[in-house]
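Narrative of activities, Objective 1.

The group set out to show that a structural description can be obtained from nothing but a protein's sequence at a throughput compatible with the screening campaign. Below is one input-output pair from the validation batch, recorded exactly as produced.
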Amino acid sequence: MTDAAGGIEYRDHYFDDPLALASFERCAKSVFGLDFGKWKARGLWDDRYQAFSAFVEGECVASLCVYPLEMTIDNKKRTGAQLLTVGTINAYRSRGIQRALWSRAEAWIRTECDFAFLFTDESAAGFYEKIGLRRRREFSQIVPFRPPRDRAPARFTKLDIDRDSHFAIVERLARERTPVSRRIGYYNPNLLLFMFLYVYGDLTFFIEEFDAVVVAEKSGGSLRIHDIVAAAMPRVADLERFFARFDVTEIEFLFCTDRLDLGVSSTREVKDDVLFVSDDFELDGEFVFPYSIRG
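Output recorded for this entry:
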């Protein structure tokens, strides 16, 4: 749909127009430093990923992208609309363009999805509050860790995503995976592979014994587990020998842990970013969206 107003042309679902798509990519690179080249080279560009954009004289100056995802929320199938690549070129900020884009995107989301969500920082939080999205607190799960004494060290491979053979492992498991949680899980192989290509390149480990990829980040005395990608989820006890390689005293799980047998645990409020959801999102109690969804 195209709608011109005040010298600004609003367009959506236009990625079949190669000139407009190229302009969108230039805008994304200018605003975010984001180059879609690796994602496209792997054949992962996804028609479900849609932009609601503003153009001036044929050049994209602002966008708000929507990526519908198959999700599990409280053990029920839902379609979540993740908002991504939300930004405006400096010269066109403070003109109400993003509010206009949200009005168009929201109307489409209400017909196609069950709820909307996004992750942002405090500097942008005020805008999302003004357009009616709700801030929700998130909590990760923490367990103390002592290395097992009577078991051999785990065998694992640190993956190099730029190697075709290593990428093939991740791609297979991304497509075969079971949701990491029934409380909040998602299935979108292309988005997950985007995260591996752009964010998780140095944090990806393959444990062949369990045919599982673990995204693990050491932070001081804590090991932060962003995701476990497997067709059959291993238990925490199965992963203890892998955890022991990192010399940490606690494990922090950055996804809901209902499918893991954690034992005694505590919670910690997530402070890395801010979650906003639409009024259609309903989930009681403490939770955390999987970190690997935060594209």
